[in-house]
Amino acid sequence: MILKNAFVNYGVGVDTSKDSFHGCFSTTTQQGDVKVIAQKKFKNNLTGHKQIKVWVEKNRKNKELNYQILLEVTGIYHEELLFFFT
Predict the structure, then answer these.
(1) Beta partners for 68?
(2) 17-62 pLDDT, tens digit each
(3) Taking the domain 7-85, which CATH number applies?
(4) Residues pairing with 42 in the sheet
(5) pTM above 0.90, yes or no
(6) CA 81 → CA 8, 26, 63, 70, 75, distances in Å?
């Protein structure tokens, strides 16, 4: 049985700039629909990097589902966040 609203994965899109970055946490259903769960702005520094990690785990209700983080590459502004997550 296919449940229309059953989530199959999570995704976190990140738009970076020099001083801040925006996170968009979404999910995909078995039907292929994308639903935005939450959005938030963070400072582009170590504090903001730690905060997005906590924010992702808070919004990731089903810990068994995989998730991907997709970074928008803008010059060098994404690099410290990328290294933080690796």
Answers:
(1) 11
(2) 999 999 999 999 888 889 999 999 999 999 999 999 999 999 999 8
(3) 3.30.420.40
(4) 21
(5) no
(6) 26, 19, 22, 11, 13
